[in-house]
Write a structure and sequence with these properties.
The structure holds two protein chains of two kinds. Chain A contains nine helices and no strands. Chain A is an all-alpha fold. Chain B is an all-alpha fold. Chain B has 18 helices and no strands. Classes of the chains: A mainly alpha, B mainly alpha.
Chain lengths: ~220, ~400
């Protein structure tokens, strides 16, 4: 890797696996449950959060030496709020339908614990390039889980992927539906997102015992 | 060389290997193991987990047999092949071989799928986790076919059993560790995943779904349908079943929950053998009566009048709530599950009372989920440890006070 040193590469790869913000740190759960009924919404949310946390990390890191520590939360909120408004407007301009599906959850990116967590834990103490990479990594780690959950929920709940009827047509009874298969309505409800998430956490921890917390 | 010694040989052969729990379970399930103690240990009673489970299953057998007859009877009644029963519980229109065979061929596959899939998962988990297979699924496997509609597709049942056993039980550590009743977890999964197969007026009578399809395809047949009593009441429809029918069980509903009479017999059997808690059963009935009376008072006071969407179920006399729907079955066989219920005696009163109270509350205020008892029991399962905690703390406080009074 010419561009990235080994240490920098770790910043991106760690949050994807052994230090995943959702499955290990258990942050950002609310949005993971709320918007993952469709794969498309999951992907857009993943990209939005990655953009906000990466650029936000960069900005906070550049300003880290001039932010008085007593009011740093307010400064962080201003930065993240500004970025979220930009994301919201971009979505409204280019993909209005989708922004309606995501509705309030774009605005609620502000309260996503991952973002404030990375600002506090990383950007305030590291240089801009490393902070930017850390933002990309954590956003991608969050997005990866969102996309996995969204994939299963849309496939099993609606029988579609990105809106394509991959399992056949439930009304015309083609494909799998011809032999009596039916969509699982439970998958479209939020509790099932929590259960899918729990299964991912279960699989990850049973493959890597070092991740299991002590009690 | 009988089956027993063959199994024993297999067990010895696989001792210490990965598959050992599977053979051990098969062996002890069918026979008494060779290596039991003969004297010297101080065992107070003979009821181990297996005997407990078998007793509960025995209590459910009458409901199961009745369910088979009722499935055929409801079908034949709708088709017009038999007359409605007129002469009480032993009516000749009901107890016919024809009725029984229709139900038998529909319900036996449900039982096979329930046990096959459920025990399969238990075996797999026992092998992965390297412990012996536990008997916990024996009761669940019999409960499940009794609480589903007769026409539920078998693959849906299989999916639900996989979900219920893994998420409802194994993730918590297996038999005895689960928070939620596994059978109800399975039913709740079916209810939310495939609502069209768990409610409405087509699924409760054998063959109604198929008949609807055939008619849509152009067959010259009369449509058959059968709404459960809760379903019709929720829609404010006129009741067509007599109170005797409801109590004896000649009504559409899930396979084994229609006959309140036989459920009461099963309940008495459980109380007599000291396996089911009479405190939970009694307090649950009291809770339901309390809520039912409150609703009846509201109607009497004229706050809810005819035409309101709550009127149908609110105006139902409180005692009728006890004999319609799955209330009786849930109270006797599900609420009393010793693993998920409260453990303390005072806690059992609170736990049972709230189950009855909340069941009727959900029935009336959420017509989309007329079967409130399922959700009420699951909800109280979650609260059972909390109730126990406060009961125990209360007791500790009381005794501390006594201690202080003595010292002073």
């Amino acid at each position: 890797m010419g561009l990235l040193s080994k240490k920098d590469g770790k910043l991106i790869l760690d949050p994807l696996t052994d230090n995943n913000p959702i499955t290990i740190q258990v942050l950002g759960i609310c949005s993971a449950l709320a918007i993952t009924a469709q794969l498309k919404a999951s992907i857009v949310m993943a990209i939005s959060v990655t953009a906000v946390v990466a650029i936000g990390n960069l900005i906070i890191s550049l300003m880290r030496n001039i932010i008085p520590s007593k009011i740093r939360i307010i400064v962080q909120l201003v930065v993240v709020a500004a970025l979220v408004i930009v994301v919201d407007l971009v979505l409204k301009a280019f993909s209005y339908e989708l922004s309606k599906t995501l509705s309030v959850f774009v605005g609620l990116i502000i309260t996503n614990c991952i973002i404030m967590g990375r600002f506090e834990a990383f950007a305030l103490a590291n240089g801009p390039w490393r902070s930017f990479l850390d933002g990309i990594g954590n956003g991608a780690g969050y997005g990866l889980i969102l996309i996995i959950v969204g994939f299963f929920r849309e496939l099993l709940g609606s029988g579609t992927l990105l809106g394509f009827k991959v399992l056949g047509d439930p009304i015309e009874k083609t494909g799998l539906y011809a032999i009596g298969y039916e969509n699982n309505g439970f998958m479209l409800l939020s509790p099932m997102a929590l259960i899918v998430l729990g299964i991912i956490i279960w699989i990850q921890r049973s493959r890597n015992k070092a991740l299991i917390e002590d009690h | 060389m009988g089956l027993k010694s063959n199994l024993n040989n297999l067990k010895e052969k696989y001792k210490g290997t990965k598959m050992a729990p599977a053979f051990n379970a098969l062996h002890t399930f069918l026979y008494t193991p060779n290596d039991t103690t003969h004297n010297g240990t101080h065992i107070k009673a003979a009821d181990d987990l297996k005997r407990t489970m078998n007793t509960v299953i025995m209590a459910m057998i009458p409901c199961l047999i009745f369910g088979m007859f009722n499935a055929g009877y409801q079908h034949n009644l709708q088709v017009g092949d038999v007359q409605a029963v007129t002469s009480g519980f032993f009516s000749s229109e009901f107890w016919t071989l024809d009725n029984f065979m229709i139900g038998f061929w529909k319900i036996i596959p449900l039982i096979i799928v329930s046990y096959g899939v459920g025990l399969g998962i238990e075996f797999i988990f026992a092998i992965i986790k390297k412990h012996e297979v536990e008997e916990g699924y024996l009761v669940t496997g019999m409960l499940v076919p009794l609480i589903v509609p007769i026409d539920i597709p078998l693959w849906m049942l299989a999916v639900a059993v996989v979900f219920g056993v893994i998420i409802g039980k194994e993730v918590f550590g297996g038999t005895g560790m689960n928070i939620l009743n596994p059978a109800l977890t399975i039913r709740a999964f079916l209810f939310f995943a495939y609502p069209t197969w768990m409610s409405g007026d087509k699924v409760w009578v054998e063959g109604a779904v198929q008949r609807t399809k055939d008619i849509a395809a152009g067959a010259n047949l009369d449509a058959i349908s059968g709404e459960t009593i809760l379903g019709s009441l929720a829609q404010g429809k006129e009741m067509t079943h007599s109170v005797a029918d409801m109590f004896l069980g000649f009504i559409p509903g899930s396979v084994g929950e229609t006959s309140t009479l036989l459920i009461i017999l099963g309940g008495l059997f459980l109380i007599f053998t000291k396996i089911g808690s009479w405190r939970i059963m009694l307090s649950s009935v009291l809770g339901a009566i309390a809520m039912g009376l409150i609703f009846n008072q509201i109607v009497d006071a004229g706050i809810i009048v005819e035409g309101s969407k709550f009127y149908g179920l609110m105006s139902t006399p409180f005692w009728e709530h006890l004999i319609i729907g799955g209330f009786a079955f849930g109270t006797v066989f599900m609420a009393t599950d010793p693993v998920t219920a409260s453990q303390t005696n005072k806690g059992k009163w609170i736990y049972g009372f709230l189950i009855g109270f909340v069941s009727i509350l959900i029935r009336v205020f959420n017509p989309a989920y007329p079967e409130g008892v399922m959700l009420a029991i699951l909800l109280m399962n979650v609260f059972a440890p909390t109730i126990d905690h406060y009961v125990i703390q209360g007791n500790v406080k009381k005794r501390m006070k006594r201690l202080k009074a003595k010292v002073a």
